[in-house]
């Protein structure tokens, strides 16, 4: 399992987490808002911003009835028609070039999720650094082949896929030119709950597919994402908006700028805290040894006087003998007179 670059950002087990702000449809059909989302992502410390490249016509057809209408009572989009929903949520293709230019000026990597083969051709013209495959497309073999053939790194979400589905998808990608792959643990509910996020899948997935793993996180807040880093995730994708109260197709499960800033900071802290297997006293801890407990004379003791629990105690600081010797001294005689506040050592008996 090798490290690789997405743009100028190294992806690897020993690399800091790569945080992607997913714009999705949170621009609410305003290019000015899209620019503002990019600015907010950059100001929050994200490493990349991601778009979605489709039109309602590349996604579906204009039809109603049956599954073309969303009738799930628990769906955020209950009552919506698919074509109309995608018309509202899509990012106009003519926006892509100015958004790419703006993101790059702000020091952000920018790439996209293509939803059909024409989107791949379009994105190649924008010199994307990587491609994202959405959960709903991870069994779309023609799309996988098209993306893999670009030779660009691929980040693929694994929601709605069995282990067999993922094995087939990974084989298609690798056999068609994909050398650099990240799989994102993903739960395709909006929002997802912590209970159905199942982060312990991350190390198992890494072992099964011998590639880097991340999390496409639809839960509220940042706790799941930070925990994922501790389990090996090195790419974190979160839907991002300026303000959930502004509404929009994905706003309900998107994080705001202050949350994104926290995610960047805390995911990096989680990574740095992993460290290595370590016991004993680290160099940075040595000064704290003085505050460990040790055996002290706490009342004046005359030469020849017996040590008792009244004149001998285990207290701080730590420059006397360690507490394990306390009981060995009880009943022994002091060799010399000792003042209260004297640390006990072998020369005192």
Output the CATH homologous superfamily of the largest domain: Aldolase class I
CATH class of the largest domain: Alpha Beta
Overall body shape: elongated
- Which spans of ≥5 residues are poorly predicted at pLDDT below 50? none
| Radius of gyration (Å) | 30 Å
Strand tally: 13
CATH architecture of the largest domain: Alpha-Beta Barrel
Instruction: Specify the structural class.
Output: alpha/beta
What is the CATH topology of the largest domain? TIM Barrel
- Beta-strand fraction estimate: 15-25%
Number of domains: 2
Number of helices: 11
SSE string, helix = H, strand = E?
A: EEEHEHHHEHEHEHEHEHEHEEHE
Largest sheet: 8 strands, parallel
Could you tell me how far the N terminus lies from the C terminus, measured between alpha carbons in angstroms? Answer: 61 Å
Q: What's the helical proportion of residues? A: 25-40%
Name the average pLDDT. 96
Q: Main sheet: which strands, in order across?
A: 5-4-3-10-9-8-7-6
